[in-house]
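Translate structure to sequence.
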């Protein structure tokens, strides 16, 4: 098997200008791009995590790209893919890899963040996608673990991130954990919504939502189960975050002492930032 290369977008002048402007306004901001491992087959994944030379070469290429592009680290989206394709059997190799990569990032003064799937399924049963022991094993070399507590899987409109499910995900990880583990966990917070129709569902951002909201016959309601606002139209239901729903989920983060990872910041209404 040959080394699996990576594909990246070339840096554009407008990106460089944007990064410079952001840092000028706030020198504490860290700019960390999301790194995906798409189109990898289960065989590729199994061979990759067992081949130290390939992992090190990939890590070296990634570090060089981040350094050359003046980034402050990266958000790595690899954990869930490995756990799903190997049914969790490669978790020890995966933990070893993530700790090794995190250590290398830290030597370069870069942040190392993992994005992972939720700890619980829709019935609040443990998925083993992320456990307290995983969190503990990763805490030394991983700055933050962002748990994707959104995209709630359901056959009927039930909200993007039902409140009780979000809280139970956090609670299940931290209930019996040492107090210092909470600072490594980030609750996933959606700034986008979903429109449910008879044909299925599709993601919806702020401009699409506002257009629907302005239509006179559409009615904004409160889903007491999901604790989310839902816009009811003649042929669809649209779950989209509001100040109330966002604040309630931020309060979960405050209650358990965890951080928040927003997906995706540019898809939300401008005034959502008032709550941060």
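Result:
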């Amino acid at each position: 098997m040959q080394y699996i290369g990576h594909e990246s977008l070339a840096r554009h002048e407008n990106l460089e200008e944007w990064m410079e402007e952001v840092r000028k306004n706030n020198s504490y901001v860290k700019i960390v791009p999301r790194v995906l491992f798409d189109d990898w087959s289960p065989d590729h994944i199994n061979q990759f995590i067992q081949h130290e030379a390939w992992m090190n070469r990939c890590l070296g290429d990634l570090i060089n790209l981040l350094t050359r592009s003046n980034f402050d680290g990266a958000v790595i989206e690899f954990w869930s893919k490995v756990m799903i394709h190997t049914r969790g059997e490669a978790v020890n190799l995966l933990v070893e890899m993530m700790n090794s990569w995190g250590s290398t990032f830290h030597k370069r003064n870069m942040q190392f963040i993992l994005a992972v799937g939720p700890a619980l399924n829709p019935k609040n049963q443990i998925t083993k996608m992320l456990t307290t022991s995983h969190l503990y094993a990763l805490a030394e070399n991983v700055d933050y673990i962002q748990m994707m507590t959104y995209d709630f899987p359901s056959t009927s409109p039930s909200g993007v991130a039902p409140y009780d499910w979000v809280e139970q995900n956090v609670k299940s990880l931290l209930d019996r954990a040492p107090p210092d583990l909470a600072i490594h966990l980030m609750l996933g917070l959606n700034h986008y919504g979903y429109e449910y129709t008879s044909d299925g569902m599709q993601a919806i951002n702020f401009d699409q939502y506002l257009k629907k909201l302005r239509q006179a016959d559409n009615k904004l309601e409160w889903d007491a189960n999901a604790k989310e606002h839902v816009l009811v139209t003649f042929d669809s239901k649209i779950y989209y975050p509001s100040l109330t729903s966002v604040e309630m989920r931020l309060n979960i983060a405050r209650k358990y002492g965890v951080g928040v990872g927003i997906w995706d910041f540019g898809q939300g209404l401008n005034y959502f930032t008032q709550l941060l």
